[in-house]
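User:
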Amino acid sequence: MGSVTFKMHKDSLPLIWSVSAWLNSDVRSVHPTKQLLLDTAISLIDEFGPQGFTVDNLLDASKISKGSLYHHFEDFNDVIEQAQVARFARYVDEDIRQLTGLLTSASSRDELGQRFAEVIMASASSGRAEARADRATIVGLSRHSKKFADSLALEQQRLTDSLADVAREMQQRGWINESLDVYALATFVQAYSLGLVLNDVTEKPLSAEQWASFVATVLGNSL
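Assistant: Predicted structure:
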C-alpha cells in the first residue's frame, strides 16, 4: 500500500478526558506526539478501516518517526486499539448528547414521548447503519484484548450511567414509572438501537417506521 492521503475528521478531536486518562495512566494531558499519532490513526481508520493501512502509512501521514511511535505505544496494534477506544468514545458522546437532550427539551410527559419518538426514528434510519456496524465491530474486536475490553467497558459504563441519570430525573418529574430499574431501562434503550445492526444485514429489513412504531408501543406500555 502506498502513501495515504486522508482528511482529518473534526469530530475525532479532541479526545475526551476519560480516554485520555486511560491512554496516559490517569495523567490529564497526553504528550503532543502521542496525540498526533492517535488523531492520525483515528482519521485513517475512519477512511480505510482498522486493517486498511500499515504502520508506514501512519508514520507517513503523521510525519512522526518509528522510534517515537514505539516510545509512546507498545506496538502498532496498541495504536489501533487506543484509537478504536477513542472512536467508541465518540459514539458514546453522541448518544449522551442526543438522549439527554430529550430531558432538556421536553416540558411534559406528552412532549417527552414526542421527542423520544423522533429519536427512535433517527436512530433507526439507514443513515446510521454504518455507525451501528462500526460500533459493533469495535466491541467484537475487544474480545481479543483484555486491555482493550477494559477500556471500552469504562466508556460503555459512562454512557449507561448518563442515561440512567436521565431516567432517574424523569422518574422524579413523574414522567415514567418510578418502579422501573433505571439501569435496566438505560441498557434497553441502547440495546434496541445498536441491535438494529442485525436488521441492517437481513434480507428483508424492517423499515425505520415499522421499528419505531414497535419500540414506541413497547416503551409506551412499560413507562
